[in-house]
């Protein structure tokens, strides 16, 4: 079995891109061919991008979110995730939101981010 892969929001965004077909195909291949994991944070960020940048309706965004939940394991951020993110941000000087993704990946026991 392949290593657990925690995806960044950009991978999800590219998987719905109309203008960047090569990136869309690569993102969809990554999702379908790996043990891919995402967090609730990525779902909110994807919704924001789909509705604001791609100008999709909330109904269309909801369909995409449901598809993401079907095709990836979804980690629910919790207080421990936030505590971990704060420690990561402080120690490594990453942004808090990047640190939240790292913390969720660590809690999901993912070997690749």
What would a concise description of this structure say?
The chain is mostly helical and 113 residues long.
Features:
single chain; mainly alpha; 10% strand; globular; 3-stranded parallel sheet; Rossmann fold; 113 residues
Question: What report would you give on this structure?
Answer:
- It is a single chain.
- Strands 1-2-3 form a 3-stranded parallel β-sheet.
- It has helices at 9-14, 21-33, 40-52, 58-71, 79-92, 96-107; strands spanning 4-6, 35-39, 73-75.
- Helix 3 packs antiparallel against helix 4 and helix 5 packs across helix 6 (96-107).
- It has one domain: 3-Layer(aba) Sandwich (Rossmann fold), CATH 3.40.50.
- The two termini are 17 Å apart.
- It is 64% helix and 10% strand.
- With 113 residues, the chain is mainly α.
- The protein has 6 helices and 3 strands; from the N terminus they run βααβααβαα.
Please write out the topology.
Layout: E1 4-6, H1 9-14, H2 21-33, E2 35-39, H3 40-52, H4 58-71, E3 73-75, H5 79-92, H6 96-107
Parallel strand pairs: 1-2, 2-3
Helix pairs in contact: 3-4, 5-6
